[in-house]
Amino acid sequence: MKFSFNVNLSDSDYFEYNKFWLIRSPYGKKQITLVRVLVSLITAVLFFISLFGGGFTLDALMGTIPLLIFLLLFQVFLNTFVALLIKLQMKLLKKKGKMGYSPSSVIEFYEDCFVETTPENKTEQKYSAVERISIVGNKMYIHVNNVMCYILPFTCFETKGNFEDFLSFIKTKCNKTQLY
Question: How confident is the model at residue 176 (pLDDT cuts 50, 70, 90)?
């Protein structure tokens, strides 16, 4: 075994990961951009329908102002709205008792794979399954695919040197490491 970490996660760690995934990661950025473009196109179609249907009168032009205000507010507050949706989804999952993460686990990194052991299960992953590694603030996210990720808060590392050693090791296993 090369490295072993006791990982203790909180709801806020999980929230921060989901927020990162939806707003800043390459996976979520595409979806957010697509939503922004689609809402803009729909609003533009409604704008032109309103103008053409009203014969380009002042009343028709005034009728498009709410559409433009909606579009502006949507574009400005989309990230905030997404964060609220994440919190709501987390509350619903917690209420059902099915959180998307385990609060405590042990992750052991070997030469050919890594193993996460939680009170509920044990998961082994080959390094070839790792798509990318994201370092965000005080956390490291090891993305296995666009849905599954292992969260390593910096509190897992005993020292900064331990973090640097681990980062050097994991970069040899996955060359897509990004700092955000």
Answer: confident
